[in-house]
Amino acid sequence: MQDLAPILCHARVCRILDANLDRAREGLRVIEEWCRLGCEDAELTATCKELRQTLAGYHTPELRSARQTDHDPGTALTHPQERDRQTLQDVLTANFARVQEALRVIEEYAKLTHADLSAAAKTLRYRVYILEQALSPQSRQGRLRRLHHARLYLVTSPSDRLLERVEAALKGGLRLVQYRDKTNDDQTRLKIAQQLQALCQRYGALFLVNDRVDIAVGANADGVHLGQTDLPIALARQILGGDRLVGCSTTNPQELERALQEGADYVGVGPVFATPTKPGKAAVGFDYLQYARHHCSIPQFAIGGIDASTIGEVIAAGATHVAVVRAIMDAADPQQATQDLLQHLHEGNQP
Ligand SMILES: Cc1ncc(COP(=O)(O)OP(=O)(O)O)c(N)n1
Ligand SMILES: Cc1ncsc1CCOP(=O)(O)O
Ligand SMILES: [Mg+2]
């Protein structure tokens, strides 16, 4: 058992720790690039960076000097799965697995020689699980993140070319769609909702259903948008499951307060301007828009009469997120209209 002589063991454990610190940091770097340049999410990017830097702090000269790449029989071994990355999700999944495995190895071996590193690896491993959840598009956190980033919200109106128009908007960069249909029968609604869900999924866009929790469930939607006389938010959440989104329309501070207390994930704020899409509904104007801006931290979508000619003043009044019906559904070129609205929102929300 000469191999297990304490002095040799120490050097070999250091070598294992060195290799796995590298592995974990490399995997985190791959994930960080996606957070930064793919998702443009400053918070997740900062988390990856901090995790990497924490690991770097433990990667001491003692561990680095244990490296013996020349004698590592593993460098020549590659697994076919390492080359087989079909989707972006494959890349992320593989790298999360890599980081988590490496941290587990560190946790186990460092118990023998570097107890503080072992404890840190355990904590970091849990933080990496949380990061993975946040990045998973179907998790609650993932959906909330996508909602926050989707500054433009298309609320559909009936159209013979509904799917075509929505697809054009998705091509223009839209990432949030609500199916609003007050006229069709339920079987037709369900069929359309399922088609829209599949379409949105292809473009990585969130898909919500207006008013109807049952149709949202049947179409596997990302959530539902509720008005003041629809089902309570908590019941909708219970029916849909906790990972789905629930939005709520508000027209005044009292409705906003109740929506926040009941746990809405976002609010609609409007109609900002009177609109033929919702005849007879009085405009709330900019005062309530500004009130909402200062009294709530969940996304607020200004809605009602917003198009390329009015979006500037709505943004100037403080709106960061905007919902439209006619500006896209009735546009001669829905893709271009979407691009123009997004451009306004992008320019208006520069830090
Ligand atoms: C994003 C968004 N905001 C507000 C509404 C309006 O909802 P509601 O008051 O329930 O009216 P209807 O749309 O159901 O006529 C919305 N749909 N979306
Ligand atoms: C559904 C809804 N809720 C408040 S205003 C509105 C309609 C907005 O439609 P448009 O964008 O065509 O003015
Ligand atoms: Mg409604």
TrEMBL record:
InterPro entries: Aldolase_TIM (IPR013785), ThiamineP_synth_sf (IPR036206), ThiamineP_synth_TenI (IPR022998), ThiD2 (IPR041397), TMP_synthase (IPR034291), TMP_synthase_cyanobac_bac (IPR016229). Its EC number is 2.5.1.3. It comes from Parathermosynechococcus lividus PCC 6715. The keyword Metal-binding applies. This is Thiamine-phosphate synthase. Condenses 4-methyl-5-(beta-hydroxyethyl)thiazole monophosphate (THZ-P) and 2-methyl-4-amino-5-hydroxymethyl pyrimidine pyrophosphate (HMP-PP) to form thiamine monophosphate (TMP). It catalyses: 4-methyl-5-(2-phosphooxyethyl)-thiazole + 4-amino-2-methyl-5-(diphosphooxymethyl)pyrimidine + H(+) = thiamine phosphate + diphosphate; 2-[(2R,5Z)-2-carboxy-4-methylthiazol-5(2H)-ylidene]ethyl phosphate + 4-amino-2-methyl-5-(diphosphooxymethyl)pyrimidine + 2 H(+) = thiamine phosphate + CO2 + diphosphate; 2-(2-carboxy-4-methylthiazol-5-yl)ethyl phosphate + 4-amino-2-methyl-5-(diphosphooxymethyl)pyrimidine + 2 H(+) = thiamine phosphate + CO2 + diphosphate. Mg(2+) binds at D211, D230. Residues 1-127 are annotated as: Unknown. 4-amino-2-methyl-5-(diphosphooxymethyl)pyrimidine binds at Q178, Y179, R180, D181, K182, N210, S249, K278. Keywords: Magnesium, Metal-binding, Thiamine biosynthesis, Transferase. Residues 15-133 form the ThiD2 domain. Residues 62-73 have a biased composition (Basic and acidic residues). 2-[(2R,5Z)-2-carboxy-4-methylthiazol-5(2H)-ylidene]ethyl phosphate binds at T275, P276, T277, G305. Binds 1 Mg(2+) ion per subunit. Residues 152-328 form the Thiamine phosphate synthase/TenI domain. Pathway: Cofactor biosynthesis; thiamine diphosphate biosynthesis; thiamine phosphate from 4-amino-2-methyl-5-diphosphomethylpyrimidine and 4-methyl-5-(2-phosphoethyl)-thiazole: step 1/1. GO terms for molecular function: magnesium ion binding; thiamine-phosphate diphosphorylase activity. It comes from the Bacteria. Belongs to the thiamine-phosphate synthase family. The lineage of its organism: Bacteria, Bacillati, Cyanobacteriota, Cyanophyceae, Acaryochloridales. Pfam families: ThiD2 (PF17792), TMP-TENI (PF02581). Its cofactor is Mg(2+). HAMAP family: TMP_synthase, TMP_synthase_cyanobact. Residues 128-351 are annotated as: Thiamine-phosphate synthase. One of its GO terms (biological process) is thiamine diphosphate biosynthetic process. GO terms for cellular component: cytoplasm.
